[in-house]
Amino acid sequence: MKSPQYSVLILGLDNAGKTTFLESLKNQYNQQSKPLDKITPTVGQNVGVIHLPANSCNLKFWDVGGQQNLRKLWPSYYAQCHGIIFIVDSSDKLRLNECKEVFLNMVIEDDQLSDSGIPILMLANKQDKEDSLEVQDIKEIFNKIAEKLDASDSRVLPISALTSKGVKESIDWLIVRMQRNKKNRPPTYR
Ligand code: GDP
Is the pTM higher than 0.90? Predict the structure, then answer.
């Protein structure tokens, strides 16, 4: 029997931890991945599928790269995805403003995002580092922007992709919202 499959776009600046997050997911759900401290920057797309037995469905993740020249490709994925994860490096205070601008542009530039009801999960990554911003500080910046997405559920959650802390909880949050939004964005069956 075919299982429902939801596609999730993993976005964020380069070096935010997108690849590490995807490998951490594969590690936890599929038991096959690279050692998390041996990951090299993504060039082009990085795709991975995990199976969630408890929800009887598959999640397909697309990490499409966060370098400036790749960001213009992001909107071409919005029409097909069921959820978006935006990863922030909480320890990189120097790039927080850039990160905020990129998120704001993403939200205001494309009506598909606010109209489709697709959930948007912001992950405050690298919480294991001592000098990281608290999740509350990240919330203050990003929740104001996320309010512009009328139809979408959004949330900011703390994680460490490197230690995998909070990773499973983040998927638990997302899957419930994608299933709730399936009238607007039905899953595909594979
Ligand atoms: P990407 O460019 O967004 O795909 O970022 P990567 O996954 O390649 O990670 C960039 C760097 O940040 C690598 O050196 C990772 O080991 C490191 N990194 C990623 N996540 C974490 C984390 O949760 N904690 C710490 N301390 N380092 C991390």
Answer: yes
